[in-house]
Design brief:
Length: 369
């Protein structure tokens, strides 16, 4: 069985398998530069490691990217979701609509506050929440809606914004993408982003909450900054460190270049695979794609395709480990079930070399030979 060959100077990650040295292209890989390392070591030399001036600068610069007030930096994307729900005054028993086809983090955040998750189906063409199905789930107890922009493609927001329900945009995979000329994260009541290791930009772990309403932002800060308060109330130790913020600021400075690199790879993938019987992640005319993930819509099983690619040294994955309605024992989500069976995410990240990119394109072509 043939694999993508590599020389000793390849950037593949060597592993040992069946007594044979082989090279595997990982599904995800963080992009860390010498400048990133200098930024972090500069904080180490200064000696102020916890939340401080670097965090405040990062909040201001990330907020400025959206033309917003400074964001509220926190320890993870899940923490960002949790505090955003608290800032929106979501209480036990309140209903919050979210798509079934998403990672488990939003469900955990809802469970933290005791809210009732109301799952909606997704549009299998774009993987995002189906606005018609979401509207059908509204009840008098609906207090908010979590709308992820999945894999880098903005969700269809215009039908949802006029519903009178606070929209919490989850931009963990789409920070910088645009919907009808507007940046994602600027249209909902609040928005959150994740800076996990393999997200569009990283602080290792971390996240941030954005919004225009300064009252909500002050509430978020109060919930995060738990110590040395005159009045006691439940707060959370969700702070980001200056070490992480220094990395985030360095990543933000070169963010446009990393986005261009992702889109360049995506364009070449689409060109090589345009004649295959697959659904390609090509954005509609009214939105751009950040390409956090490059997700193919196959006609056959994604699991079988991933296994065949693994035999060629390419790590591909189902982009969502398990839909939420499977976890909660619910039925009636045909769009979600379809994409769960047929969606396959292949490697796309700024540090993917041209040689690795060719290996990925040739391996996918070989699935249809």
């Amino acid at each position: 069985m043939s694999r993508c060959g590599c020389s000793s100077t390849s950037r593949y990650e060597p592993i040992q398998l069946v007594d044979q040295l082989i090279s595997v292209i990982p599904h995800s890989r963080p992009s860390i530069t010498a400048g990133d390392i200098r930024a972090v070591t500069g904080v180490l030399r200064r000696g102020h490691l916890a939340q401080g001036e670097e965090v405040r600068r990062f909040e201001a610069e990330a907020g400025g990217f959206l033309a917003f007030p400074p964001g509220v930096a926190v320890s993870s994307g899940t923490a960002a979701l949790h505090l955003a729900l608290l800032a929106l005054d979501i209480k036990p028993g309140d209903e919050v609509i979210l798509p079934s086809y998403v990672c488990v983090a939003p469900l955990h955040a809802l469970e933290y506050v005791g809210a009732t998750p109301i799952l909606a189906d997704v549009d299998p063409d774009g993987f995002n929440i189906d606005p018609d199905d979401a509207k059908a789930r509204l009840t008098p107890r609906t207090r908010a809606m979590i709308v992820p922009h999945l894999f880098g493609l903005p969700a269809e927001l215009d039908p949802l914004l006029p519903l009178g329900v606070p929209i919490l945009e989850d931009c963990a995979q789409a920070f910088s993408a645009e919907y009808r000329g507007r940046l994602v994260g600027t249209m909902g009541t609040l928005s959150v982003v994740s800076f996990y290791a393999t997200k569009l930009m990283t602080t290792g772990e971390g996240g941030m909450v954005f919004g225009r309403d300064t009252r909500l932002l002050r509430r978020l800060q109060d919930l995060r900054d738990y110590d040395e308060r005159r009045e006691h109330r439940l707060r959370f130790n969700y702070k980001l460190t200056d070490m992480q913020a220094a990395l985030g600021r360095s990543q933000l400075r070169r963010f446009p270049a990393t986005l261009t690199r992702r889109r360049t790879i995506a364009s070449r993938y689409c060109g090589r695979w345009r004649h295959l019987p697959v659904r390609l992640p090509v954005p509609a005319d009214d939105r751009t794609h950040a390409y956090h993930r490059f997700v193919l819509g196959l006609q056959s099983s994604a699991v079988r395709a991933a296994s065949r690619l693994a035999a060629l040294g390419i790590t591909a994955r189902r982009p969502v480990f398990r839909p939420l309605h499977h976890l909660l024992g619910q039925e009636g989500f045909p769009g979600t079930d379809e994409v769960f069976r047929h969606a396959l995410s292949v490697p796309i990240y700024p540090d993917l070399t041209e040689r690795e990119e060719r290996c990925v394109t040739d391996a996918v072509l070989s699935l249809f030979a």
